Amino acid sequence: MSDQGSYPPPGQVPPGSGPVPPPAQPWFPPPPVHQPAGPPPGYGYPQPGPAQPGQAPPGWPQPGYPGYPPPMMAAHKPGAIPLRPLRLGDIYDAAFKIIRINPGSTVGSAVLVTAVAMAIPIAVTGVLTAFLDLSLVDLESESQDAADLAGFLSAYGSMLIGGILQSFGLLFVTAMITHVTAAAAIGRKLSLGEAWAATQGKRWRLVGLAFFLGAATLLYLALVIGLIVLFAVTLPNAAAVLLGLTLGFGGLAGLVFGWVRVYYLAVPPLMLEPIGVFAALGRAFTLTAQQFWRTFGIAVLTLMITQFIGGILSVPFSIGGVIATATASGEASLMIFVITNALGSVVAAAFVTPFTSSVTAVQYLDQRIRKEGYDVELLARAGVG
């Protein structure tokens, strides 16, 4: 047979011909390429671009331990206070941490000052009771002579003097806790002696600040009350009532404004900055600018918390004093009354003064961080950066 028209065996290519194309395959659309889940283009974070050799692509996390923040994140809190603008929870959390870390220079100082101040009425009452035979039963009776009346007035007067001394003593405690707070912000602890030594050179200025603010408040109240009395005497009833109410509410608003803008944050700058009394008042006014309602809200909330908890802490002593004086006889009743009230004051001051002073000092640091970048200086003092 002739070779023309014959076909080579399967799998062989005729001589001189090119490679045989593969047999045709049925057409199907290509399978979809799996894309990572995420937002469509144009939304969210940009897609990672090309990276240089040895570097992670832009938009991807840098090499390290996944799920952990960079090491510098911990540097923003070298102590008890996060060195950034603080929220209300941050302020209260920092105050509790400062008290827990420095119990001696916070709670200890408040207890020591209050105990010394309350020892005065106890001693005076004990002496008067021994010599004049005073008792609460005699106070309620109508048959008491001038000596007994003078003794009672002396006993209660000594309690008033003790309260005044306690107020001045707690003013120094506030100054000490201000230094404790500033040290806690950079991770340091101050003992009771170190906190007291830190106030050296500023103590008389602190007393001057207290006297100035007290005198200014009394003069302001005297002016407002005097004007109200003047209106009541010289004007008709309707006009006097209207102007009196207006002046009364206006005077109260002015008192609150001065308390927030000038009084509330005056002690921390006086203690921590090289300035005097009037410069400290100016610093308080500057730091609370455009922060009135925030400062006012935190201050009022703190006052409500401390008064509530302080009242709860002193209730057992008040109840115990009432029961003891009711069952005691003779001169022991007045002595028990004074002692139980003094113990209640000591226990309440152990919480109220450290917490209030710490919150005030933390608010001062917070305002400086917000307005002056004070966190940079604190980080440098802490040795970070």
Automatic annotation (TrEMBL):
Transmembrane regions listed in the UniProt entry: 107-132, 152-185, 206-233, 239-260, 272-292, 298-322, 334-355
Ranges annotated as biased composition (Pro residues): 7-65
Keyword Transmembrane found: yes
Superkingdom assignment: Bacteria
Region described as Disordered: spans on this chain: 1-65
Signal peptide annotation: none
Keyword field: Membrane, Transmembrane, Transmembrane helix
Protein's name in the database: Glycerophosphoryl diester phosphodiesterase membrane domain-containing protein
Organism: Nocardioides marmoriginsengisoli
Source organism phylogeny: Bacteria, Bacillati, Actinomycetota, Actinomycetes, Propionibacteriales
